[in-house]
Specification:
Layout: E1 2-4, E2 36-40, E3 45-51, H1 67-85, H2 87-94, E4 103-106, H3 113-125, E5 129-132, H4 134-153, H5 157-161
C-alpha cells in the first residue's frame, strides 16, 4: 500500500510539512524527507518510494549515468538517512515504523541491456535502493494480475469436496 503524505487533518500518513526536521527546507532547497511511503506487509515496516518522471534522461552520451539519475539516487539516500535518524519520532508521532527501510526509485523507461546492467551495478553498491522503470513496473503489475486471474480459474481440492 503506497501512501502520499498530505496536509489533511484526517491523514494518519506522514505529514511532510509537519515534521519538525522538515519544517524549514535546508539551505540548498532540497527536501530531506519523503513524500511517499509503502507498507511492507511481511514486516509491517515502512519503505520509501521516490517517484521521478518516466522520460528523464538517465544516461549521458558516453553511456555513464547522468546527473539527473545521480541527483535522484542521492535524494533517495537522503530520504533513507532521514528516516533512519528520525525513526523514533516517526514511530511515536506518525505511527510509521522505519526498520531496515529500503527505497524504490521509480524513474525512466525502456532501458537497454547495458543501461540496465549499469543501474544494477550501482544498486549492488547500495542494496537499500532498488531502481525500477515505469515499463518494468507495468510488467510486474501485469504479471501479478495474470497470476491472480489464473488462480481464480483453478479448482482446488477443498472446493471439489464441498469445503
Amino acid at each position: 500500500m503506497m501512501r502520499r503524505h498530505t496536509r489533511t487533518p484526517h491523514s494518519r500518513a506522514l505529514d511532510v510539512e509537519g515534521l519538525i526536521q522538515c519544517a524549514s527546507a535546508p539551505s540548498n532547497g532540497r527536501r530531506k524527507c519523503p513524500r511517499f511511503t509503502a507498507l511492507r506487509h511481511t514486516t509491517n515496516a515502512t519503505d520509501v518510494v521516490e517517484l521521478k518522471q518516466p522520460f528523464l534522461r538517465l544516461f549521458r552520451s558516453d553511456g555513464s549515468l547522468s546527473a539527473t539519475f545521480n541527483d535522484a539516487w542521492n535524494q533517495a539516500e537522503r530520504y533513507l538517512d532521514f528516516c533512519q535518524r528520525q525513526r523514533t519520532y516517526l514511530m511515536d508521532q506518525k505511527q510509521l515504523r522505519f526498520e531496515n527501510s529500503r527505497c524504490i526509485l521509480l524513474i525512466g523507461h525502456d532501458l537497454t541491456i547495458p543501461q540496465s546492467d549499469a543501474i544494477r551495478s550501482k544498486e549492488s553498491m547500495s542494496r537499500l535502493i532498488t531502481v525500477m522503470t515505469y515499463d518494468q513496473l507495468y510488467r510486474h503489475a501485469r504479471h501479478f494480475f495474470d497470476v491472480v486471474v489464473a488462480a481464480e480459474d483453478r479448482t482446488y481440492p477443498s472446493e471439489q469436496i464441498g469445503g
